[in-house]
Amino acid sequence: MSEHLPPDSALAASLAGGPEHRGWTVQTHLLAQLVNAVRFADANNVRVSGGRLKREPTPVNVPQVKADKHERPRLDLSNHPLAKPIAPRG
Predict the structure, then answer these.
(1) Is the pTM of this model over 0.70?
(2) What is the average pLDDT value for the chain, to the nearest integer?
(3) What is the DSSP string of 11-65?
(4) Cα 7 to Cα 29: distance, rounded to the nearest angstrom
(5) What is the per-residue pLDDT for 66?
(6) pLDDT band (50, 70, 90) for residue 48
(7) Higher-confidence residue: 85 or 90?
(8) 31: closest CA among 57, 70, 60, 54?
């Protein structure tokens, strides 16, 4: 099981799609999206104020995570003998 490995481990990178994922944790993905948002917001502010851009902002390239082929099925207990419907609030 790889669920307890650090997200920047070699095995986790391999399972995510390859060595280009090494070092890309949830935090680095969020930081890259934040940098992209600031770059494009700054460019829009320049445009709105009547300025001209020397060049369009370039986004940070984030490696794409491959789809999980072995996704675990969701736990459905609705047919369990002790399952009870949720009473509406009222």
Answers:
(1) no
(2) 81
(3) HHHHHHTSGGGTT--HHHHHHHHHHHHHHHHHHHHHHHTT---SS---PPP-PPP
(4) 12
(5) 65
(6) very high
(7) 85
(8) 60
> At a CB cut-off of 8 Å and minimum separation 6, what does 58 contact?
39
**Residues 16, 66: Cα–Cα separation, whole Å:** 6
C-alpha 27, offset from chain centre:
9
Q: What are the structure tokens assigned to 34, written together? A: 């934040």
Q: Length of the chain in residues, anyone?
A: 90
Phi, psi (rounded to 5 degrees) for 58: -105, 130
Taking the CA atoms of the chain, what radius of gyration do you get in angstroms?
22
Angle at 45 between CA 43 and CA 53, to 5 degrees: 40
